[in-house]
Amino acid sequence: MKFIKQILTVVICSTLSVGCKEESPQILSPNGDLKLHFSISKNALLITQLFKGDTIIKKSPLGLTINGSDILRDFELKKIEKQNFKETWKPVIGKAKQVENNYNELTFHGISNGKNNIEFNVVLRCYNDGFAYRYNIPKQDGKDSIQINSESTKLAFNSDFTFWGYNGEHHNIGPLIWSKSKDSTYRIPLVTKQNNNTYVGIHEAEIIRYAPFEIKKNTGGDNSVGIKVKETKDELPIKTSWRTFIIGENPGDLVNSNLLVNLNEPCKIEDISWIKPGRAVWDWRVWGYKSNDGFEYGLNTKSHFRFIDFAAENNIQYLLIDADWYGPEFEQNSDPTKAREGINIENCMAYAKSKGIGVILYLNDVGAKKFGLERVLKQFSDWGASGVKYGFMRGSIEKKVRHTRSVVELCAKYKLMVNFHDGPIPPSGDDRTWPNLITKEFCHSQADALRSYYPETIVTTTFVNMMAGAIDNCDGWFDFDNSIERVRVFQEIPGTVAAEVAKLIVVYTGMNIMPDAPEEYLKKNDLFDCIRKMPAQFDSFKVVDGEIGAYIVAARQAGENWFVGALTNRESRELNIELSFLSENENYNVTIYEDAETTHFLDERESYKIRKEVVKKGDNIKLKLAKGGGASLHLEKI
Hints:
By secondary structure, the protein is of the alpha+beta class. The protein is built from eleven helices and 38 strands. The chain folds into three domains: about 5-260, Beta-galactosidase, Chain A, domain 5, CATH 2.70.98; about 280-535, Aldolase class I (TIM Barrel, Alpha-Beta Barrel); about 560-635, Immunoglobulin-like. Helices cover about 15% and strands about 35% of the residues. Strands 1, 8, 9, 10, 11, 14, 15, 17, 18, 22 and 23 form an eleven-stranded antiparallel sheet that branches. Helix 3 runs parallel beside helix 4 and helix 5 packs across helix 6 (about 375-385). This is Glycoside hydrolase family 97 protein. Keywords: Calcium, Hydrolase. Its cofactor is Ca(2+).
């Protein structure tokens, strides 16, 4: 495949016949820290999971109900296959320049007894950072399709645990104690903290055909976790998504993991040269802003030209033109192949191209379906657009899953990147297969849903939602004191300007959508310089410290240089940043952008200070974050 090179692949397979009677088959992670043990009988396939010698999941049954009966409650095991796999691959957009995909795998081949006699495979993979399983139902005589009714898996955790969960465009659920929690189901992802301080993140990989599962609290008050799937009927062969369990000693380990992308297929786009991550200026939140020269921003080409000029001069790669540019977005007659009065889309595209700036166009689900998705995307491509922001997809969850994949594939056909908003399907590592899927608003992005979020949300979202993949958080507010006067800002925005810069480092995404007016960035030009110096795409991403809901520190490499971002909740906090990631025997100039002594996320949001030092590997930098604040480091090798 052009541009995508598999550097190393090693596959070792073996088959154990049932006659060999391996009493207790098991698989270990490549480093031996994680173990999966299995017990097999006619009426059960039981799994036990250990991490560094500690039992995390006690002996627990797997199960899937098809055509009214559980295939793992009365079955005959035909054979067990083992496989060891190792490769290194290069992502188009990712947390590192290359990713190691190394796992050990067991596949149980069986056939259910009784009237159904369904052949099935249960595939389990064990990585250093977690494990996953899925069900495969192959083609077989006498059956064209099957009905998946439910999943009867019941994973018994060794002890009670604390958890946090995804909560749409609201602050995350948690921290809660599982035994004391009230709801019967929770959406993925769910992050758990076990009693031995091991963290387990429960999610799903390769959500491409069926509705995402929910995490079920079983009755009886025990510590078990169930998997709730929506009923579906489909033609054979069938592969469910991967049920994934990411494991680490710190919450940041779950975010740093590449398990989800490794469980997806390799890139299917041959020429990926047009897929370019970056930052975008955004018209939506700036409507009504009046600059000192008397200009008032609105939904018009004059405003878009002004954005383009600013982007071209300040290392920003894109302009996002949001909703209503082709008419009221929810009206049936708003045609996304024609711009409304006041907008000349052809002139805008030509001007942006002359300045080296890409344009991303909003598309509502109503217009896409009314006027033909492919017709609309072809028109965007013919105009010269770089990408699409797709909003408010409607339909059942399963239909949204399948339509999401259709949108992504068609966008790839017309060389368009895509960013999904407004209740999107969860990221599930599928950006490996289709890297034009650059990000999703899988969070409460700031000032969206007609309300603002508070500092504790960003330091929870970055551990819970971001474990699933790239998120669009719409970070980079500079004008806190007057932003409420704008048309598309509905509540006062809490936070600090230093924290807004840090968010552009801490939040992992393929596209930073920056919401403020160009003039507001230039008013604080010395602080904005940190953003100006950021690369369009970092070379690495790693959470180096943090506690869910309290604070987070992330480091990003940019060539020979580094950026570090730190954020806190409503509490002020002193942090000691150890520069262990720097190169040996090299000195670095570090510029520190941080809150001022008087900064506060409600009372004094726009004050900040900047200082400089010379440091080397192993040095420490002390930061004091204001309440709701943050700090950024830019380290340049001397």
